[in-house]
Amino acid sequence: MTRVLVINGPNLGRLGVREPEIYGSTTHEELAEMCRAEGLRLGLEVEVRQSDSEADLVAWLHEAADTRTPVILNAGAFTHYSYALRDALAQVGAPTVEVHLSNPAAREDFRHNSVIAAVVSGSISGFGATSYLLALQAVASRLEP
Ligand code: DQA
């Protein structure tokens, strides 16, 4: 089974209690379970990780680059300004998907720019937890022979 790494950045560990009117009431553990279940359905072994630390996220992207592991990344606020994440993501020679629960384009101006959008295979935003399931489907379709 192909392994897929789902990486969640800062504040996403607080899903369920964090601004539920924007991010929904699903907790991070429930989201992780949904991703693992969708992965099984698609024949993917999904591992979900979360950190508030940019250094952890960079290290996990290096690991994905070294093992050619597909990545689904919700970089949280780092999306909008972390060139370090952008440079790490650019090294992953496997499908990569940028995901967001909300639709950043419909929110504050500072969320309109993504510094990672140009180095991912594609982006999915605005569908809540379903954004992740759509991203897994996109990865599965990219991996089909
Ligand atoms: C987010 C959108 C970002 O602007 C925000 O900083 C987040 C979550 C989303 O999933 O909608 O932390 O990435």
Provide structural commentary.
Helices cover 37% and strands 19% of the residues. The protein contains five helices and five strands; from the N terminus they run βααβαβαββα. The chain has 145 residues and is an alpha/beta fold. It has helices spanning 20-23, 28-42, 54-67, 83-89, 130-143; strands spanning 2-8, 44-50, 71-74, 96-100, 122-125. The model has no long low-confidence stretch (mean pLDDT 97). The chain is globular and about 40 Å long. It has one domain (2-106, 127-143): Dehydroquinase, class II (Rossmann fold), CATH 3.40.50. 1,3,4-trihydroxy-5-OXO-cyclohexanecarboxylic acid binds at residues 11, 74, 76-77, 79, 100-102, 104, 111.
Provide the descriptors you would attach to this structure in a database record.
145 residues; alpha/beta; Rossmann fold; 5-stranded parallel sheet; 5 strands; globular; binds 1,3,4-trihydroxy-5-OXO-cyclohexanecarboxylic acid
